[in-house]
Write a structure and sequence with these properties.
It is a single chain. The chain is mainly alpha-helical and about 130 residues long. The protein has a single domain (about 5-125), classed as Up-down Bundle (Four Helix Bundle (Hemerythrin (Met), subunit A)). It is about 65% helix and about 0% strand. The chain has helices at about 5-25, 35-55, 65-75, 80-90, 110-125. Helix 2 (about 35-55) packs parallel to helix 3 (about 65-75). The protein starts with a helix and ends in a 6-residue tail after the last helix. About 30% of the residues are buried. The model has no long low-confidence stretch (mean pLDDT about 90).
Length: about 130
């Protein structure tokens, strides 16, 4: 297995670990606050897309949510506009690469739930592409 194929599998597996925690937050009130859940959501989203892009034999050029979506969409036309909306939502609460950035904001419970549901849909697509060993 080459390094990029290994990256695809490793990143996707890591995203599943984050997603498992996030999915529990949909079922019942989490013991984690929204800042921590949002951090997990960002990591999950990033790992999902790094894995998907690597699955197609490429490396992610950027790691901001919308840039990851745009990179992946070049190789994966099955990505939907709703998945792009999830990318926008995930990226909405941080502006670490912006000169006039506002820093970090905390998403509401409903915004987090919407992110998680979006990432579950993204996972359904990725699960058809990346086979875990």
């Amino acid at each position: 297995m080459d390094d990029v194929a290994k990256l695809a599998i490793d990143a996707y597996q890591e995203s599943l670990n984050y997603l498992k925690i996030l999915e529990k937050a949909l079922e019942k009130r989490s013991k984690f606050n929204n800042d921590l859940l949002y951090g997990l959501a960002v990591m999950c989203f990033e790992k999902q897309f790094v894995g998907l892009i690597a699955h197609h034999g490429f490396m992610a050029a950027h790691h901001m949510p919308l840039a990851l979506y745009k990179d992946a969409h070049q190789y994966e036309p099955a990505l939907t506009p709703e998945m792009k909306d999830t990318a926008r939502l995930v990226g909405k609460f941080e502006s670490i690469c912006s000169l006039d950035g506002f820093g970090y904001k905390t998403p509401t419970d409903e915004e987090l739930k919407k992110m998680i549901r979006g990432m579950l849909e993204i996972n359904k697509l990725i699960a058809t592409r990346i086979v875990l060993i």
